[in-house]
C-alpha cells in the first residue's frame, strides 16, 4: 500500500502532543507485545492525570507499572491487575481510579471504538456489579447490557515489522490487544523491531493497514518474561 512516509526519528517526536489529562490506549497482554519504549518515553515526559486503557498495568518496575511509580496515571481501565503490588496499594488508598472490565468486553470496546460504533450490547456481566448503572435490553429472551466503546487521544502499539507507510505485522501472540488498540487512537504510534522498504511486506500478511497509523518508529526491546517456569 502506498501512502505517506510515517517514520519518525525519535521517541520525543513519536509522542509529540501528548499532554496532561489525555487518554492513552496501550497494546500488549501481560508483558507480551507491550510498547515498552513508548511507555518509557511517557515516563520521561512526566505527563500527569492520564487515563490509561490496557488489558493490565504491567508489573512493578516494568511496562505500564513504571507510570504508577511517578503517579502519572489517574484512572486505569483494565481487565486484569493482579501482578502489580503498587497498583494494589494505589487502588486501596484511593489514589488510583480503576474500572475493571471483562477481557472480551474490553477488546470489543476498543474494536468498536476503532470501527466508529459508539456502543454495543453484550450478555457478559449481566446480573453482576459490572452491569450497575448500565442500560439493559432483552434480545431473543436473553438479557444484555449496553457497553460504551473506547477511543483514546493516543494509541501506543508494539509491532514486529512495518514498512515506511505504517503497514504493520505482529508476531505470534504479540497480536493480542495490539490490532484493536491500533484502530482506536486519534493518534496511533507504533514501535517495531524492523522497518522494511515499501513492497517487502506480503499484503496478505499485514495485520494493521497503514491507514490507521500516524507514526512509526524502530526500537530495540528487552522483551522481559513475566514468569519463567522451569522443571523442578
TrEMBL record:
InterPro entries: 3-oxoacid_CoA-transf_A, CoA_trans_fam_I, CoA_transf_BS, NagB/RpiA_transferase-like. The keyword Transferase applies. Its EC number is 2.8.3.6. Belongs to the 3-oxoacid CoA-transferase subunit A family. GO terms for molecular function: 3-oxoadipate CoA-transferase activity. GO terms for biological process: beta-ketoadipate pathway. Pathway: Aromatic compound metabolism; beta-ketoadipate pathway; acetyl-CoA and succinyl-CoA from 3-oxoadipate: step 1/2. SUPFAM superfamilies: NagB/RpiA/CoA transferase-like. It comes from the Bacteria. Keywords: Transferase. The gene is scoA. This is 3-oxoadipate CoA-transferase. Gene3D superfamilies: Glutaconate Coenzyme A-transferase.
Amino acid at each position: 500500500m502506498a501512502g505517506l512516509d510515517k517514520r519518525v526519528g525519535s521517541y520525543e517526536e513519536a509522542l509529540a502532543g501528548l499532554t496532561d489529562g489525555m487518554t492513552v490506549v496501550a497494546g500488549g497482554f501481560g508483558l507480551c507485545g507491550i510498547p515498552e519504549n513508548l511507555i518509557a518515553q511517557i515516563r520521561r515526559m512526566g505527563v500527569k492525570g492520564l487515563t490509561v486503557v490496557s488489558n493490565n498495568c504491567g508489573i512493578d518496575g516494568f511496562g505500564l507499572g513504571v507510570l504508577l511509580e511517578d503517579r502519572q496515571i489517574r484512572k486505569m481501565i483494565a481487565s486484569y491487575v493482579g501482578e502489580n503490588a503498587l497498583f494494589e496499594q494505589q487502588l486501596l488508598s484511593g489514589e488510583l481510579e480503576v474500572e475493571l472490565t471483562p477481557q472480551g468486553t474490553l477488546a470489543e470496546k476498543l474494536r468498536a471504538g476503532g470501527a466508529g460504533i459508539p456502543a454495543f450490547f453484550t450478555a457478559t456481566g449481566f446480573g453482576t456489579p459490572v452491569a450497575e448503572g448500565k442500560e439493559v435490553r432483552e434480545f431473543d429472551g436473553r438479557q444484555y447490557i449496553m457497553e460504551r466503546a473506547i477511543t483514546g487521544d493516543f494509541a501506543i502499539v508494539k509491532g514486529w515489522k512495518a514498512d515506511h507507510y505504517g503497514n504493520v505485522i505482529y508476531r505470534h501472540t504479540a497480536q493480542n490487544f495490539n490490532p484493536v488498540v491500533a484502530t482506536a487512537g486519534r493518534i496511533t504510534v507504533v514501535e517495531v523491531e524492523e522497518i522494511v522498504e515499501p513492497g517487502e511486506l506480503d499484503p496478505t500478511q499485514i495485520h494493521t493497514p497503514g491507514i490507521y497509523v500516524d507514526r512509526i518508529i524502530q526500537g530495540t526491546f528487552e522483551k522481559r518474561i513475566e514468569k519463567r517456569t522451569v522443571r523442578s
